[in-house]
Known about the structure:
- The protein has a five-stranded antiparallel β-sheet with strand order 2-1-5-4-3.
- By secondary structure, the protein is α/β, with parallel strands linked by helices.
- A hairpin with an 8-residue loop joins strand 11 and strand 12 (262-263).
- It has three domains: 2-116, 2-Layer Sandwich (Beta-Lactamase), CATH 3.30.450; 136-301, P-loop containing nucleotide triphosphate hydrolases (Rossmann fold); 304-433, Helicase, Ruva Protein, domain 3, CATH 1.10.8.60.
- Residues 118-125 and 374-388 have low confidence and may be disordered.
- Helices cover 38% and strands 19% of the residues.
Amino acid sequence: MEEYYGNLINNLTIGASVINNNGQIIFVNDAYSKGIMEEKDFMLRTNMYSPEYNKKLSVNIFRTVMERQHEVRERQVYVNEQGFAYNVTVFEKPVFKNNKVEYVLAYAENIVPLARKRESHLAGGTKSPDFICESAPMRQLEEQLRKIVFFPTNILLIGETGVGKDVVAEFIHRNSYRWDNPFVAVNCAAISETLIEAELFGYEKGSFTGASMKGKKGLVEQADGGTLFLDEINSLPLSGQGNLLRAIEKKTIRRIGATEECSVDFHLITASNEDLETCVKNKTFREDLYYRINVITKRIPPLRERKDDIIPLAIYFTQVFCKQYHIDISLTSDIFDKLLSYDWPGNVRELKNYIEHYIVTGDSSTPNSGHPGDCATVQKTAPTITSYGSLKEMLAEYEKEIIKDALRNSASKGEAAKKLGIDPAVLSRKIFKYRLI
């Protein structure tokens, strides 16, 4: 009878699998394995809790079912062993025995091939070098982005000046199936109104006075097959917004002086440091363009709202500038305290500039009133950056030294935890982790 039901399920046209409560796939039908072009033997060796398998998924629906103890229908992106990506709509239903989940039935209701992805993984894959996400808000943002990077949906990034919208845009590009095609970043605020058409859409040879006799390919056309990132789109003159809207809607452009249009294929990411709804009300931004680019909106939090990223970013920039300028210098634990107590109105860009100033001059003070470096550097220093190990290893070393310093200068663990701005229980775990007892 078991063989009969197995054959029956195996002949279903819909993908189906059975997972036990330990996360082990114990049955998968032909429709499922063939739909995602994965060997059935490989799938039957798979455990849904394994880190390796989780790197292949944008979201682990099985884990959600086990946590909620309830059926879940959700879309996920799956990257198979050959590097091909699939958009899969999955319905997973728990089967209970004695009030405990014994099995989870998974049905692949729709499997749509997306594209080939390079040899990296969804969960631990390619990042822009300075995409630091140690804080909870940035980890949440990264998780959200990984669910949408495979789709050509227009994305609008909003946030204050200097938060790193360009880094997030590049992260999306590098983790999409367009990773090996151009990433064209355009600062709309830097293009004069008289040149906006020529810069964005290009021109034919001799089409106007001063035009190159060879003609020029516009920035939109340069992004063909890849990603077009329009930063500070709120600064784009109204005169250029109409043709941009057409290029976005029709995916065609016409060079200045040309008689025919040409097709372009690009993933559009835009960014604004102003409220575009207010710009629309003030008649400085077209309403139809706003709704066209505002399909998925992601807010990049300012640095003051993600303090856990400050020290990792400072360490990263220190490593970069020490290597760039062939200088061996380190941050100090006193500087760390100042970095964490400062609000960083200029966000990541201001932090980067401060670190470069310190690396080049060796002086932690700056002319900015209230800047974290206004007082002199103390003598005790954290580990010197000489080996350029992984960021994770370097962070661990710095964290260990910071905790040791806090304990040395505090009357109790509770006082040290208060100075560090963490819960005493968290400090105790870190003390045990670094064997500081």
